[in-house]
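Re: weekly structure request thread

Next one in the queue (592 aa):
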Amino acid sequence: MHSYRTHNCAQLRAADVGQTVRLSGWVHKKRDHGDLVFVDLRDHYGITQIVTEVDGPAFAVIEGLRSESVVTITGEVVARAAEAVNPNLATGAIEVRAREAVVQSAAQDLPMPVAGESEYPEDIRLRYRFLDLRREKVHANIMLRAQVIASLRQRMIGQGFTEFQTPILTASSPEGARDYLVPSRVHPGKFYALPQAPQMFKQLLMVAGFDRYFQIAPCFRDEDARADRSPGEFYQLDFEMSFVTQDDVFAAIEPVLHGVFEEFADWQGKGRTVSPLPFKRIPYRESMLKYGNDKPDLRNPLVITDVSALFEGSGFGRFAAIVAAGDVVRAIPVPNTADKSRKFFDDMNAWAQSEGFPGLGYATRKGGVFGGPIANNHGEAGMAAIAQALGLGPDDGVFFAAGKEAQAAKLAGLARTRVGQQLGLIDEKRFEFCWIVDFPMFEYDEDAKKIDFSHNPFSMPQGELDALETKDPLDILAYQYDIVCNGIELSSGAIRNHRPEIMYKAFEIAGYSRADVDANFAGMINAFKYGAPPHGGSAPGVDRIVMLLADEPNIREVITFPMTQKAEDLMMGAPSAVTLKQLRELHIRTVD
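Done, posted below.
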């Protein structure tokens, strides 16, 4: 018999009754019933119930076990009484009557329990993450992550992609987020950077003649955490393709994402559906108008409408003045709210003010009759026009966001989401994908008073060099795209600018000289001078994909050893001080 186990803790069934077996695992729960002691023994695979009588040969050891001690049990498989069968447990038809128990490792008093799903403070969970990972839900999330990555890898290979690894130690780039820097011991005063993404390397692989690259790539960015972004490091499904158009990129990655989400849509019996192929394509400006952002949650049926023209010369002076000044009024329908009190609408206005906006106007409606100050001043005919523009029913109210276009769009988007949540309009059983396309190549930076790149500076402008030379920069669109699912941006991507003369011109418009481009992006611009194929790609975030499939609101729940929001590893004590000897070797001195 094996020293530790003949079976795992999810393996035994009624057909095994009568066998002598050996199991090893952690003491999940212990129950003392006087003449009998029961132990739920847990390992990676599942749970088996162990039983011993008070006069049994293993009682003395089992009776003294603490939760989470590691123990090896040898005993006989016996059938449970019919009334004791546990249908929620794979091994629920049997139990093991212990003949021998050997403690492999005794546990001290726990700082947090493993059994049960009670909420515990984040700092405790992260400090004792090795215990937290034993908990059923977190353990399942991490296993889901492993299965998703395996599925992504298999599907990418099936689409003709080859996996390559790119460097972790590289050069710092002036573009993008803040780098993590690594001092060089042999080159005093110089630093490597951990890659924010393998962007330049994957493009150089295309220049080198490899056709379809992918990688489950680690990326490092020194930026603040948020619910869908882990500080420090994250993983993405990085891919690039040669001799492709935007349509080719979409056709390659859509079946991969759709297939993975369909594969795990029913994970733990959640019974979700996935939007059909091909995914919807929404131009950036349309998304900003209809949804108030560039990552719309299409499970929410509400659509924002620009009603600025309907308030020109309106009796509601405030909105009329806003429109006369060249600003906008956006309207969000509020369906079936005739039974809502005015407090619902006032609370939404208070919420908008708490978010830093001047307020959120509204008009109520019941039986086709509008109410509220805006409706009273705007007039019956004016409100009828708004109802027609929005397609309002007789009991649908409306919220208004007014002001500068960017701020009005932002407030309208946030209000759309909040209304959808409060009225239960969002279908939690769907994964709704879409592409956001036709991003503007440039934007005007009000702070710097200059034109700058609005998205990815290495994207190919639509119209290429001719557009850069003849169009207003703010009218130029790029072959840039985002893939969005349920309001979460999974990745940005682009058809790349592979021609040096176009790259120099694009950077010139953004205020960079030819020398700036040569100095900051030497590796890529030099490579492009020796023959580069048209190429493009993207990099969907693995952490975010798993977060959606696991139905978790916070990305830390699907990462094995996440950091805190302050980018601290409480378990390992990182970041930490280092010795003076180490600093001297690196030619570094700290300054208080």
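DSSP finds 18 helices and 24 strands in the chain. Residues 136-158 form the longest helix (23 residues).
Next request, please.
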